[in-house]
Structure formats: structure tokens, C-alpha cells
Amino acid sequence: MKIQVETPLSIDFIKKLSIGDEVYLTGEIITIRDRASSRAIEYKIKGKPIPTELNESIIYHCGPIVKKIDDEWNVVAAGPTTSIRMENLTPQLIKMFNIRMIIGKGGMGIETTKALKEHCGVYCAFTGGAGVAAAKMIKKIVKVEWLDLGIPEALWVFKVENFGPLIVAIDSKGNNLYEEIKTKINENLKILRSEKID
Question: Could you give all domains of the chain from N- to C-terminal order, each with its CATH number?
């Protein structure tokens, strides 16, 4: 199903999404990767203020390529980062901030799937290698925080329009498209091997 939606995302909307749905977002998303995830968790534990609103937000595993023209940042490319590298941090991030949607590539693991189910969130896959196309859907850089971590690791708040297609790969019911595909492949391999033996 193809769905167009504006942020922020309600819990009711998230609950209606199922794996395989095609989502196009208009509104704000926040880039976050390893170092920013680690700092956000640390700040939350210590009660320190976080300079952008992560609660119930949409986070994008992305290290954008940007350039500064006349003191203004412009996005050159903003393709997704492989999400599994954030698996050790993302479940805690979801629990602490009730993250509604994660955008990335390659899927995530069991602990993230459990956290999304528990806190009503989804994981959406965006096409790898489409960084320039993604940049065209970013209409404005709202702000950037934590630049001391480096440009790819900073928190970039983007205003996007019809950002997608985003394929729901893990839904709030605990269904995981990647795991389902793995199961089907393994079943088919077993059939092929048994036929070869016969």
C-alpha cells in the first residue's frame, strides 16, 4: 500500500502500518548515527538537555554530504547508512525517546525489533545508493547540532517533502520483512537440497 503522511506521526498511524507498505514522508526527520546515538543516550541518563527534540521523532541513519555556500549549508547527498551497525545503541534509543520511525538500509536485529514492538515504532528501508535523489527531497536544513562530532555524525534536522519510497521492513507488531525473507530462502534451499538428494 502506498501512503503519504505528514509528521509528526501518531501512534494510531504507526499501528496501521504493515511490512511491505510504501510510505512517503513530508515534515521533519533527524539524522543520527553511532556517535550521536551514544551521546543522546548519555545525555538522557545524566539529565542533560538535548538540543533537538528526539521524543517521538523520526530518525534517519544517514551521514549526509553537505557544503556551505555563503554561510548556508546545502545537502549534496543524503543516502542511508547501513542500520545494523547501530544495533547496539538503537534499542536503548527507542526506549528512552519513544522513536516512532527509523529510516535506514539493510534492516536491524532482534533487539531493535523487540523495542519497536514494545514502544510502537517501525523501521523503514530506503534505497541505498540514492543519496542524490534523497537530497532533492530535502527542502530545507532546519538546523544542525553537535557538529563537534563531525559532519556525518552530527544531528541534522531536515524538512523533507514526499521523502521516499520508504518500505516498512519492521512493523510495530514485531514482523520483520528481512527475517521473513531469510526464512523463505532457507525453506527453498531445504527443498532444493532434498530434490538434489532424490
Answer: 2-197 (3.20.130.10)
